[in-house]
Amino acid sequence: MTDTLTPVLTEPWGADRSWTREVYEAHGGYAALDKALAMAPDDVIAAVKDSGLRGRGGAGFPTGMKWSFIPQENPNPKYLVVNADESEPGTCKDIPLMMANPHVLVEGVIISSYAIRAKKAFIYIRGEVVHVIRRVQNAVREAYEAGHLGTDIHGSGFDLDIVVHAGAGAYICGEETALLEGLEGRRGQPRLRPPFPAVAGLYASPTVINNVESIASVPSIIGHGADWFASMGTEKSKGMGIFSLSGHVKRPGQYEAPLGITLRELVDLAGGMREGHELKFWTPGGSSTPLLTAEHVDLPLDFESMAGAGTMLGTRALQLFDETVCVVRAVLRWTEFYKHESCGKCTPCREGTWWLVQTLARLEKGQGSEEDLDLLLDQCDNILGRSFCALGDGATSPISSSIKHFRDEYLAHLTHGGCPFDPAASTVWAGSADQQEVTA
Amino acid sequence: MTLEQSTLDELAEIAGRYPEARSGLLPMLHLVQSAQGKVTPEGIEACAEILGITPAEVSGVATFYTMYKRREVGDFHVGVCTNTLCAVMGGDEIMATLQDHLGVGNDETAEKRDGDAHTVSLEHVECNAACDYAPVMMVNWEFLDDMTPQKAVALVDDLRAGNEVHSTRGPRLCSWREVERVLAGFPDGRADEGPSAGPASLAGREIARERGWSAPSAGASAPASGSEE
Question: Which pTM value belongs to this model?
Answer without folding.
Answer: 0.96
